[in-house]
Amino acid sequence: MLAFAPPMARTNRVAPLRARLHGFRAVWLRCSSLRAPARSVVAPCQPARKPHTRARSTEEYRLNRPHPALFIGHGNPMNTLEDNVNSRAWRDWGKRLPRPRAILVISAHWETEGIAVTAMPCPRTIHDFAGFPKRLAEFSYPAPGDPDLARRIAQLLAPEPVTLDMEWGLDHGAWSLLAHLYPNAGVPVVQLSLDRHRDAAAHFALAQRLRPLRDEGVLILGSGNIVHNLRRIDWHRHEGGFSWAERFNRRVHRLLLEQDHAGLCRLDEEDTRLSVPTPEHYLPLLYISAVRDAGEYLTPLNDHIEYGAIGMLSAWVGHMKPAP
């Protein structure tokens, strides 16, 4: 069942956290309260042309199917603008990805009551932070939306009720990565929310229903951080993690390679409680693991921890082209 509905409650379950990243104070706020317009760095959004029928799209992308799926540890929003080890890696991955028909992003920064998917033709750029430089607050990623893909997602998730959301847009979990993967903002983008009432296993089961999208030319992109504890950040430790963060990171690395779904969904150990004090940054990883075929190749990427408690480990599911 799908429905157009008023905006759902979006308040994070965790009180806003303050963090000092790269010398700037950042406050994670309710994204829905930030309405300031942003300047565009590329041409303003133009609604995507009427897409082909699904049968034609599937044929068009047949040689590339299943399309790769990608989880990326997004870290500091300043990665959008900076030239560093993370942004360079993301630009390299963008050159290796086949061009998708559309992109579905599952971001840590959109939690809702129930399930929602963005369905507007031109999603706004959301700046869900404060205290960063003006040029980041003015950054715009004017990719078109894809209402047809939103309806397709609702169809795949049926009979779960899915709200076709007309209010959200693209938060920094989406655009901080897409700015490097697809800098021209020419590929339609849709975001799927995280239902805060589901546990890890329920999110994994829900995500499995999205697997057909990979055969339809859609890039499924999870954006979060496997280790994410802002309260434990050590500003003097730019590289390397606390012992508990390193252990948990190695555990997840191993479980991904072993395709141990049950292990990935188990979040009750001590290292896990420190590495994942709240689940929203970890859950997008499960969506990428869930759309991986049995025995399909997975490539761990960018495996390092910053400031003791922010894990940047990423995972590429499917074929990876050699570096250009």
The whole-angstrom Rg is 18 Å
Q: What structural category characterises the helix and strand content? A: alpha/beta
The assigned CATH architecture is 3-Layer(aba) Sandwich
Uncertain segments are: 4-41, 51-57
Tally of extended strands?
13
- Give the tally of structural domains: 1
CATH level-four homologous superfamily name:
LigB-like
Measured distance between first and last alpha carbons: 44 Å
- Provide the helix percentage: 25-40%
CATH topological fold name: Protocatechuate 4,5-dioxygenase, Chain B
Proportion of beta-strand residues: 15-25%
Helices and strands, in order, run as EEEHEHEEHHEHEHEHHHHEEEE
**What is the CATH C level class, in words?**
Alpha Beta
- Main sheet properties: 6 strands, mixed
Shape: globular
How many alpha or pi helices? 10
What value does the average pLDDT take?
86
**How are the strands of the biggest sheet laid out side by side?**
8-5-9-4-13-10
